[in-house]
């Protein structure tokens, strides 16, 4: 391995950490537990969060969440098919009432939705180039028995 490869690898690893955002979202469970984390997504009733002291993501039961606050932009999809984009807050509820999510789309426009109505929630960004993701795969299989090659795409 030459020195250029080592320097390039170290530079890429350092640059990747610059794109990670701070874990400043607040998650309060119905039993009173408070978790400072980074909310990643909500899908099929499972909230995915990242913690500073855990490698990877943690799955949380959405029905057990009592309060959620995040200054990150999210796209929120509801059961009726509507889509909202904004930062998240929650309204204090009494007893066993479901949590109510506030989606702050702008200073003038705030949408309030019952948490049971939220179907999917994903992180997004104000910067258009940060909204794209994808991957490229390339592979070749060589079989020595009959000298055949197969290209994968």
Multimeric organization: single chain
Number of E-state strands: 11
Helical fraction equals: 10-25%
Number of helices: 1
- Radius of gyration in whole Å, from Cα? 21 Å
Can you tell me about this structure?
The protein has 153 residues and is mainly beta. Helix content is 10%, strand content 48%. The chain has one helix and eleven strands, in the order αβββββββββββ. Strands 1, 2, 3, 4, 5, 6, 7, 8 and 9 form a nine-stranded antiparallel sheet that branches. It has a two-stranded antiparallel sheet with strand order 10-11. The longest helix has 16 residues, at 3-18. It is elongated.
Brief descriptors of the model:
1 helix, nine-stranded antiparallel beta sheet, two-stranded antiparallel ribbon, single chain, 48% strand, 153 residues, mainly beta, 11 strands
Helix/strand layout:
Elements: H1 3-18, E1 25-29, E2 34-43, E3 46-50, E4 57-61, E5 65-78, E6 83-91, E7 100-104, E8 110-114, E9 118-123, E10 139-143, E11 148-152
Task: Please sum up the structure shown.
The chain is mostly beta strands and 153 residues long. Helix content is 10%, strand content 48%. The strands form two sheets. Strands 1, 2, 3, 4, 5, 6, 7, 8 and 9 form a nine-stranded antiparallel sheet that branches. It has a two-stranded antiparallel ribbon with strand order 10-11.
């Amino acid at each position: 391995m030459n020195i250029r490869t080592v320097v390039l690898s170290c530079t890429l690893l350092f640059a990747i950490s610059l794109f990670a955002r701070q874990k400043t979202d607040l998650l309060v469970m119905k039993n009173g537990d408070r978790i400072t984390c980074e909310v990643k997504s909500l899908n099929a009733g499972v909230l995915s969060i990242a913690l500073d002291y855990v490698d990877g993501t943690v799955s949380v039961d959405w029905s057990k969440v009592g309060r959620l606050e995040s200054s990150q932009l999210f796209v929120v999809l509801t059961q009726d098919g509507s889509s909202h984009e904004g930062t998240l807050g929650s309204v204090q509820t009494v007893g066993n009432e479901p949590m109510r999510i506030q989606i702050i789309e702008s200073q003038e426009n705030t949408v309030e939705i019952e948490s049971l109505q939220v179907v999917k929630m994903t992180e997004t960004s104000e910067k258009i180039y940060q909204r794209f993701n994808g991957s490229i795969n390339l592979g070749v299989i060589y079989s020595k028995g009959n000298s055949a090659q197969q290209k994968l795409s």
